[in-house]
């Protein structure tokens, strides 16, 4: 009887989680505002240093495709991790279980709400890009590949953020770890002004393990419909996915009923 009383995903739960997402100021600042501002600033600086005006579209498109990865990183890796850590601090997941709502149902509802918010954010992001900068028109295969890559990255980051929040279990520690990961991803992927080729060898090895490196560095080729070797990028997805999966496994082993059961 207890299992029958457990509630699955409902529209009310999705709306509840969506309100949690939109009520988090971090996701608006780092997940919407910062990508737009950085993309525009970097584009203006990069275009001003190039003498050939015909390259402006390529530069702007490359910058925007790379900066787009900040949206799931900020919204999920930082926003979700910090928000869920606060809920753990207040014992909200345990209270929800008293009403028959499983942790897995809460996680799925949050995933749907995060997907809705990220979709709207990308709409704003590219609307500004095409309205202000000279972004190039993509090939159909490029659009599918780009947003599929973002989707898979978002799922992996959700697992990583959930694991970090459950292990740290406090706002302060979770905020510190998630912020460090956020800026580490930016630095190693070349979004902080240091190109991949200029990194030391050990840093290049780390960068090759991160999917954001390939999206930031190479995805103009994919966006334009050119041939591209996906294998190194797939390997980076598998590595980061394995790390996130291990974190979730450790969380489940420590407390199988509280976080994801």
Give a brief rundown of this model:
This protein is mainly alpha-helical and 261 residues long. It is 77% helix and 0% strand.
Proportion of β residues? under 5%
Query: Outline, from the CA principal axes?
Result: globular
Mean pLDDT: 85
Q: Tell me roughly what share of residues is in helical segments.
A: over 70%
Rg of Cα set: 19 Å
Low-confidence stretches: 1-6
The succession of helices and strands, N to C, reads HHHHHHHHHHHH
Terminus-to-terminus distance: 17 Å
Number of distinct helices: 12
* Category by helix and strand content: mainly alpha
Number of strands: 0
Main sheet characteristics: none
Which descriptors would you attach to this protein?
single chain; 12 helices; mainly alpha; disordered N terminus; 261 residues; 77% helix
Topology summary:
Layout: H1 2-5, H2 11-22, H3 25-48, H4 56-67, H5 70-90, H6 92-98, H7 103-132, H8 140-168, H9 171-188, H10 201-207, H11 211-223, H12 231-254
Helix pairs in contact: 2-7, 3-4, 3-5, 3-7, 4-11, 5-7, 5-8, 5-9, 8-9, 8-11, 8-12, 11-12
Description:
It is a single chain. This protein has twelve helices and no strands. The chain is globular, with a radius of gyration of 19 Å. Helix 8 packs antiparallel against helix 11 (211-223). Residues 1-6 have low confidence and may be disordered. It has helices at residues 2-5, 11-22, 25-48, 56-67, 70-90, 92-98, 103-132, 140-168, 171-188, 201-207, 211-223, 231-254. The two termini are 17 Å apart. With 261 residues, it is mostly helical.
